[in-house]
Amino acid sequence: MNQFPSLRVRTVRLEPGTLRQLWRYSDPHSPLVFLRNGDGIVGSGQILWRREFFGPDRIREAADAWSKLTSFAEVKDRAKVPGSGLVGFGAFAFSENSQQASVLIVPSLIVGRRDGIEFVTAITADSTKPDASLRDPAPLGPDERAVFETGEMDVVQHQQAVDHVVDLIGSGVLSKLVLARDLIAKLPEWTDRRHLIGRLAETYPDCWNYSVDGLTGASPETLVRVRGREVRARVLAGTAPRGLEEHIDRDIAEQLKSSPKNQQEHRFAVESALHALSSLNDYTDPGDSLTASPEPFLLALPNVWHLASDIRGTLPLDHTVLDLVQALHPTAAVGGTPRKAALEAIDRIEPFDRRRYAGPVGWIGAKGDGEWAIALRGAEIDPDGTTTAYAGGGIVATSVAADEFRETEWKLRPLQDALSSGSIDPYGDALFTGFGTGD
Question: Which sequence ranges form a coiled-coil region, renumbered to this chain (predicted)?
Fold first, then answer.
C-alpha cells in the first residue's frame, strides 16, 4: 500500500429513506462508525489507507499526512454535506507516552445521512473508477455477551489513589485531577460487534456513537466540530446521576446547577478550552473570535445530568479541525489542572495505559472540516475480543474516595450492560447522590 496513494472519490445522493439503521452498514468485526441521532457516517469494505502515529506530535503529524493525502485525491461530491466526499476516520491516544497507536483510516465505501440527505461514497486507490452504488448490509451475526471483571485498579487501589491525589491537591501540586479505572472482559472473536453499537445508539441517541479501530462507545462530549469555517465545541464539567422519580430528578438537576463547587470547576474547564484555542486566534475581525455561552446549561442524558457550555466561532484561515483538536486535547475535564502536572500525575498514578480512552475520536474531511468527540463511556476492543472499559472522575480537594468510586460505577454501567446483558439500564446507579466533575 502506497504511503500516499492517488485516491479517486465519488459521492452520489440516494433517494430519501433508502438508508435505515446506518450502523448495520459497517463491518461486523471492524466497524467504522460515527453517528448521533441516527445521522452521520459509516465505513466498510477494504481499508485503502491507514496511518499510525505516536508521541507528542501524533495529532500534528496526522494533520500533515492528511493534507498530503488529500492533495493527491480526485474528489467528485454530489451530496456536499458534512461527511460526504473524502473522509478519514480517526482515533488518538490520550497520552503522548501511550503505546497505543493513534490512527487515521480511509475505507473503500462510506454511507451517510445528514440533514435529510442520504449518500454513498466509493473510493479507489488503483486509478479505477469508483462504483458508488449501495450494497446491502451484511446480515447480523452472533450476538455474544461478555462478563466484566476487575481490571488493573480495584476498589482498594482506587481509594488509595484518590486519597493520594487529594494530598497532592492539598500540597498545591494540583488543583484537579481526573482519575480513571478499568474493567476487563473477553468478547468471543466471532461476535458481530454491530450489536453493541446498535444498542448504544438506541439508548443514547444524543451521544456520539463511535467505533474506530476497536475503540467503541457512546460519548456525551463534543470536542470540536467544523462545518465550512464555523467552529463549535462543547465543554462538559459537573455531573450528577438522573433520579428515578421526576421530582427527585428535578431536585438533583437544580442542586447541580447551583453547586458552587461544580460551577467553579465548569468555569475553569471553559476558560481552559478558550485559552487552549487562543494560540490559533489570529482573527482580524473581532466578530470572528471564539466565545462561550455566558452561563452553563443543564444537559440531560438518559443516565446523567451534565453542566454544559458551547463555544462558537470561526475557523482561522489555513487551519483544519485537527489543528483545533491538537490545541484542545486534553481538556481539563478529562485531564486536570495545571495540565502538565496533571498529565504527569496520571501517568504516574494510574497502573495502566489509558490507550485511546478520553482521547479524540471522529472524522476529518478533505477540506479540513470534521467532527470530533472525546472517547468517553467506551472501551478498547482488541481483535481477539479482549475488552477494556474505562471511566473516570474529577478529583478535587473535597473529594471522598467512596463517592468517587461509585461515580465510576455508574459511568461504566451503560457499556457494561450493553455487553454483558444486552438490556441497558439508562439510569445506572441512580441512588448515588453526590456530584462529579470531569468524566
Answer: none
